[in-house]
Write a structure and sequence with these properties.
Chain lengths: ~120, ~110
């Protein structure tokens, strides 16, 4: 079975440019997460979807970041405009969750963003 | 105070040693607890869930202390392949919020 797929794997852009990341979760997984991970730090949750609904976007910087999960499957995370401090690895994860949130998260390989 | 705190290490231990990590959390309403492992430049992967009664998987033992609000991970008979960063994850409260710790780096030395 295919795991979580993310693209692109690497992206280099200049500051103030827009950028978008794509994630395809494991088939049948209803919950999808986007994380940001800086070097030497743990992943920080940006947004969590249950099906199509964003149930926790409290950590998403909404002035420049946006996300969508149309049809409750694939998801796109966008940054516009990008800033130097956005350089990080952006991880997508999915899980097959009930209300308790006890399920294992499966992570994609991440997109490494460098903003110049 | 951070919601989830870990000693970043690194913990440098010889092969065969026993090593333990703790992770403290601030939200007493937290409900679910996990340990993930992350190899260098790779994605995190679930190592084990942490249950109230504690759980063991081979050389790995995880425990939860709700009174003191921490979870622990014990690794016995360390192997070179155990070298990685160990991330604790706490879920709970409003929206079943998911919070990762910063990770503890373990280096097992021959």
């Amino acid at each position: 079975e295919a795991g979580v797929v993310q693209s692109p794997r690497y992206k280099i852009i200049e500051k103030k440019q827009p950028v978008a990341f794509w994630c395809n979760p494991i088939s049948g997984h209803n919950t999808l997460y986007w994380y940001l991970q800086n070097l030497g730090q743990g992943p920080e949750l940006l947004i969590r979807y249950e099906n199509e609904e964003a149930v926790d976007d409290s950590q998403l910087p909404k002035d420049r970041f946006s996300a969508e999960r149309l049809k409750g499957v694939d998801s796109t995370l966008k940054i516009q405009p990008a800033e130097l401090g956005d350089s990080a690895v952006y991880l997508c994860a999915s899980s097959l969750d009930g209300p308790s949130g006890r399920s294992e998260q499966f992570f994609g390989p991440g997109t490494r963003l460098t903003v110049l | 105070r951070k919601e989830v705190e870990q000693d970043p290490g690194p913990f440098n231990v010889p092969e065969g040693a026993t090593v333990a990590f703790n992770c403290t959390y601030s939200n007493s309403a937290s409900q679910s607890f996990f340990w993930y492992r992350q190899d260098c430049r790779k994605e995190p992967k679930l190592l084990m869930s942490v249950y109230s009664s504690g759980n063991e998987d081979g050389r790995f033992t995880a425990q939860l202390n709700r009174a003191s609000q921490y979870i622990s991970l014990l690794i016995r008979d360390s192997k070179l392949s155990d070298s990685a960063t160990y991330l604790c994850v706490v879920t709970g409260g409003g929206y079943q919020k998911v919070t990762f710790g910063t990770g503890t780096k373990l280096q097992v030395i021959p």
